[in-house]
Amino acid sequence: MIQKNEKKVSDNFEENLMYMDQILRVKENFDILCREIVIGGKRAGFYFIDGFAKDETMLKIMTSFLSVSEDKMPKDATTFSKQCIPYVEVDIMDDFDLIVRNVLSGVTCLFVEGYKACIAIDARTYPARGVEEPERDKSLRGSRDGFVETIVFNTALIRRRIRDTNLVMEMTEAGQLSRTDVAICYLADKVDSQLLQKVRDKIEELNVQDLRMNQQTLAEAMFKRKWFNPFPKYKFTERPDTAAACILEGKVAILVDNSPSAMILPTSVLDMIEEANDYYFPEITGIYLKFTRILITILTVFLTPFFLLLMQNPQWIPEMFSFVQVKGVVNIPLIFQLLILELSIDGLRLAALNTPSMLSTPLSVIAGLVLGEFAVKSGWFNAEIMLYMACVSVANYTQPNFELGYALKFARLFMLILTAAFHVFGFVVGTIIVLAFIVFNKTLSGRSYIDISI
What is the pTM of this model? Predict the structure, then answer.
């Protein structure tokens, strides 16, 4: 719960400015400014953050203020906002907690001598990058825009796609220190009212100091998941068209300021493996793409554990498939080869992320070809092991959900260890446990992970 200050604005101009200077630390902060002027014979003070205020807009507003004569000066803040401010987004506030929060959000707040209220002028602009297509969540035929770190831009991208009066975007905040803006987007005539109320209550009852990791912190605070179940509870998307499609299906999209993605509720395992390309192609093509992705997802979990099981029991291999057996000398046990390669692949991925973009591609090719070839020739790894791990590594990139990809990786490692230790019994038990993780994984809505209903 966010603690609020109950102090109200008084009609004492000096007292109001003294309190604002103290609470905002105006003398200590170089970017929080107070500009004092005279409007219609009365003293006035602007509070704003340098870098958030639109200079051209504020110049026009200031020009309008300086043209107000003393005899035409209104007696209250409400009348002043209607007659003397040639701007659209204007609000009247008398609560200092709300005023300070608006100033820190970039809104310009005006105090006028004798007025027992503050006039908030929302003439702010946020530094933002372009709405280019996300790097990971790309589409072959879809739109080329994506969410950015500014929540107002993200809501506009959804509004552009859903021009319906039932589209509701509720604004709230979370974090006692950060007070991060959070938008709940839904269609009033299609959303599950119980789920919507549950989401509202969860955000309202959050007891966190700040959303330091933005959307991820909010997700973890809203739903405390069990640490041993790696499967994600939410679907994240950086595409406005995907978020709009989910909202039109009756789902809830949560946008967090400073996060270039939307969090979708409720979700299921089939939602996790969906991507935009499934809908931008004809139905038969979309079904084929989805079926292929499901099949590859299953193979990423069971390919190497099943291969290890066959190597432990070579008599099970039919004569026509005898080529799958490891032909060379095994210097290191197969299980350790598989585990080392799992770690090595993640190491290469981390190295690529921290390598300058102009060098990442050639270095990845060098690491994949040179290190792989010499690792086999030196006897550390067998060629068959390298082949199957390469297939698994490539298959992981067919998974649009990054968090689900790592969940499948942990499931594969778990099955590898059980299979190596207990052979057939370990493989069967591992399969049952992985399926149990999926079936009994509960989302925020309380539904099962395999519940595909909206």
Answer: 0.82
Name 385's Cβ contacts closer than 8 Å, sequence gap at least 6.
Answer: 326, 334, 337, 338, 341
Q: What is the mean pLDDT of each run of 10 residues along the chain (454 residues)?
A: 70 93 92 92 92 84 88 90 90 92 92 94 82 79 87 92 93 86 93 91 86 84 77 88 92 93 85 80 85 88 92 88 82 90 82 67 61 73 85 81 86 94 94 89 74 59
Strands 167-174 and 180-187, by their bridges, are antiparallel
With tokens 């604005």, the residue in question is: 9
Structure tokens belonging to residue 255: 């946008």
In angstroms, rounded to a whole number, what is the distance separating the alpha carbons of residues 396 and 408?
9
Q: Which of 63, 263, 68 is nearest to 151 (CA)?
A: 263
Q: What token pair was written down for 354?
A: 């921290």
Sign of the CA dihedral 80, 82, 88, 90? positive
Tell me how far apart the alpha carbons of residues 449 and 436 are, in angstroms, rounded to a whole number: 10
Which DSSP letter does residue 440 get?
T
Q: What are 427's two structure tokens?
A: 């493989």
- At 361-371, the pLDDT tens digits run 655 666 666 66
Give me 155's structure tokens: 């809501």
CA gap 44, 109 in Å, rounded: 10
Query: What are 313-326's pLDDT values in tens digits?
Result: 988 888 888 888 88
Q: How many residues in total does the chain contain?
A: 454
Q: Please say whether the dihedral angle defined by the alpha carbons of residues 51, 56, 57 and 59, taken in this order, is positive or negative.
A: positive
> What is the DSSP secondary-structure string of 198-229?
HHHHHHHT---S--TTTHHHHHHHH----TT-
How far separated are the first and last CA of the chain, in Å rounded?
Answer: 30
Q: Give the residue carrying structure tokens 């990786």.
A: 409
